[in-house]
Design brief:
Strand order of the largest sheet: 1-6-5-2
Strand content: 35-45%
Radius of gyration: 13 Å
Number of strands: 6
Order of helices and strands: EHEEEEE
Oligomer: single chain
Number of helices: 1
Helix content: under 10%
Amino acid sequence: CLDRKLAESLHLKITPVQGDIVLASKDCLVPRIGQAKDVSLHFGSRQIKHDFEILDLAPDAPILLGRDLFQ
């Protein structure tokens, strides 16, 4: 997922999505903001496109990547 401020600073189009996201604790959920689709990621010699969920993340973690993206 990407922080909303980072997505806005990169001028990514945020497509609104309805619903809630359940976080790590079953009783902790937040309303969905939207998604940024087909965002290009470059790491090493690899490039992929990924659809990111947009959240209001902590300032010290503006992006959260799963290990599955590096497979």
